[in-house]
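During the reporting period the student researcher (J.K.) took over the structure-prediction task from the postdoctoral fellow and processed the backlog of single-chain submissions. One of the processed entries is reproduced below for the supervisory committee.
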Amino acid sequence: MDPITTPPANLNPPKQTRSRRTLERIVRASLDLLEQLGPAGLTVQAVVERADSSVGSFYARFKGKEDLLDYLGERVWQEALDRWTEALASRNWSELDLPELAAGSVGLLLEAQRSRSSFLRALDRAAGGNEEAYQAFRRHLIDGIAELLMARADEIDHLRPDLAVRLGLMAVLGVVDAEDPASGTRLSRSVLVSEATRLLMGYLAPASPGGVSEGVDFFDIWG
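J.K. obtained the following structure tokens:
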């Protein structure tokens, strides 16, 4: 799988511990504000108040809001790609049968979507874009998992295994996207993984029972 290239970013952390901590508080406060209030709620004053910092500390690191947004976009994007790459490399996927591989794939997609897509979407909106970074990240997720599943193309009961894989993964992401966290009825991770795996296996091998095997070890790659 070819890596996604992004514009070079100056993501080198400050050398002094105190300065690093201040930067991390500013970053965390900024992401929280973006997620909770959207771009309009991201002001320098709101950031420093939430970060328990000062305006001087902010401007010692960033020229202004636009500079902060550039930094956040590059950092969140790079962290998302790094964690996704680590997750794909963290286990021997060839040891799993197709239903287990499908369940593991769904688990990875769910964690990635729930943990990072909201930040990428918020940053896209703040930058005046139309979710370019989010859509690129989404394509990267699909491409990575599709490569794993296509290694089992001979087990896929479809005239066009590549089409079955891609449509199945798009359907899974559609289910995840359709969830409304604000409704108070968000499905548990285990239920969503189990049901989305059945959906994916419906494309890959309709005769298979699908579902989540107890032998699949799910893990939080984004904590």
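The committee noted the following: The radius of gyration is 20 Å.
J.K. will present the remaining backlog at the next meeting.
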